[in-house]
Amino acid sequence: MIRVLLVDDQPLIRSGFRALLDLEADIEVVAEAADGSEGLALAREHLPDIVLIDIQMPVVDGIEATRRIAADPALVGVHVVILTNYGLDEYVFNALRAGAAGFLVKDIVPEDLLHAVRVAARGDALLAPSITRKLINRYVTQPFPTDTGTELKELTSREREAVTLVAQGLSNDQIADRMVISPMTAKTHINRAMAKLRARDRAQLVVLAYESGLVAPRNS
User: Fold this and answer.
1) What is the three-class DSSP state of 55?
2) How many whole angstroms separate alpha carbon 189 and alpha carbon 84?
3) Do 142 and 216 contact (CB within 8 A), yes or no?
4) pLDDT higher for 197 or 201?
5) What is the pLDDT of residue 29?
6) Is residue 114 within 8 Å of 108, Cβ to Cβ?
7) Which residue, 30, 82, 167, 202, could crosslink 125 as a Cys pair with Cβ 3.0–4.6 Å?
8) pLDDT in the model for residue 216
């Protein structure tokens, strides 16, 4: 059972998502919150697999709530998925840097929402390759100085290659084809790189790859 926490200041939005998710046999909405502060408290209480959280909310916004969830050792298994009305708005990349596993636009079709929840619950990549490239092209104009340089040196050449391909938006199967290895081996390389770089998920791995300079951004 995939346990979901809904965090949005609009009751109608929460009701719509809940009605859709509760119809699924493998998904359960465990709680709802109207702001980030309440959402953080409920995340600690219920330990959901997924937190669907709006970016713009009163009291504590979605980005700050995401940052606090990502920083809490007790919530290490909680995956945050950002909800937004505006698609690739200025807040999305900041949300990914804060620790979000990905993002969804609120006008997403029901089938895609259900698929995204299941993908995020597995800890797999939630961002489609096209979305990853758009985010990078729009928001990353130059690498940001970080403390990941030392950790990058710990990556093997194959792990660095895998991270580079993740940052380009490739799936595990595509990475396996490119590296001429099995999908399981590709996933192993990625998981080991995530552990060495202390990345919570693939979305954060993409951010680290660009911020560290491992992958050079391309201007759109």
Assistant:
1) coil
2) 32
3) no
4) 197
5) 96
6) no
7) 202
8) 66
Record the tokens describing residue 13, joined without a space: 């939005």
Number of H helices, E strands in the chain: 11, 5
- Rounded to 5°, angle at Cα 145 from 163 and 124: 30
DSSP 120-184: HHHT---S-HHHHHHHHHHH-SSPPP-S-HHHHHTS-HHHHHHHHHHHTT--HHHHHHHHTS-HH
Per-residue pLDDT at 142 exceeds 50: no
| φ/ψ of residue 201, rounded to 5 | -160, 180
Q: Model-level pTM?
A: 0.70
H-run or E-run covering 3: strand 2-7
Q: What is the pLDDT of residues 36-52, one digit of tens each?
A: 999 999 999 999 999 99
- Give residue 103's identity as a one-letter amino acid code: F
Q: How far apart are CA 16 and CA 12, in angstroms?
A: 6
- Three-point CA angle 67, 152, 190, nearest 5°: 75
